[in-house]
Amino acid sequence: MRRLAESVGVMPNALYSYFPDKNAILDGVLDDLLGDVSRPGPQVNWRRGLVALMSSYRSLLLTQPGLIALTVSRPMLGPNAVRVREDMLTLLRRGALDDTDAVIGFFALFAYTTGFVAFETARPPGQRDAKERAQAYQLHAELPDVDFPTTRALARRLSKRPGDLEFKRGLHAVINGFAGTPKALPPAAIENRDCVRASPPPERERERERERERERSRDMTDSALRNERLGAIAGRWNTSGYVIGDPRLPVEGTDVYEVFSGGYFLIHHVDVTVGSQTVRAIEVIGEPDRVSDAYLARSFDSEGNFDVMKLWIGDDGTFHFSGGGDIAPAAQPGDTPTAQVRSTLMVSQDRASMKAFWERSEDGITWEPWMDITFTRGE
Fold it and tell me: Does residue 140 sit within a domain?
């Protein structure tokens, strides 16, 4: 209290005119900052509202990591904390969760978000973090396959720095788990592994189905309005370029973007060689992101790798992709893990050619050139 008084230029006794003790000051600071958490709109879809609210809460903790300890040690009873709690519980009940599941969901979402940020901020990005992750990747990749087959197979993913993609994927998993969970059983029943979970009441299940149908309808309407610009890259393309490095690795082959029945999605077929390695993959583009105006692009290759990227299309028609480090592993260096990748895809005015420039980052902060690819429209 004395040091705080000195820093604000008042006598220590003056603080006690407003705050009875140190904890009261901490509670006031915490609640004031919680006022920066964005409020969901009154008509927002409950899932989107929860993702947006918890993403805003995460952003606050990332900028003020000192709050993490306070959020788990203080009762959070100030007006802004109560408002955040009310918004979360309202959204959970809007998702047809009963009172018990709504409260459990509230605690689970706060615990997940706070814990995720604690994990993120404990190791800030930078050269030291990148070096430690490279060491972790090397250790896991060199484990004996007989004793550690799963850890070795997931070495690259284990060494990635968690970020927006991982946070939102886990957040959706938590939310979807509650959305599809029947009414909770009493503790005695949970301990009985042979028991069968009770089915939800018919009216509750019907309300959930009505909400899912409303959500599907909104998503399809939004997609129909936005996906017209995806057609700019539809067709068959001859692919030629290289992975930047010494020596350069040539990239040759074909990329086909096929408009899926209904017009809402593009199916991207990749068949190229990177150096001497054949790469075949499929990508589904067009799913609306639930918390932004981006599209999601989910990719899967013939080696079992998969990842999700986000796509924004600029007003000038330029495609901007960004995502995790498991994209195009054949083109990545084997000695250092990739945390994130991004690319800019520019379509010519006559739509006869495209140019893609890719970058990669080992720490999510510094970026380096990665691939330079040209596409010419085929027959």
Answer: no
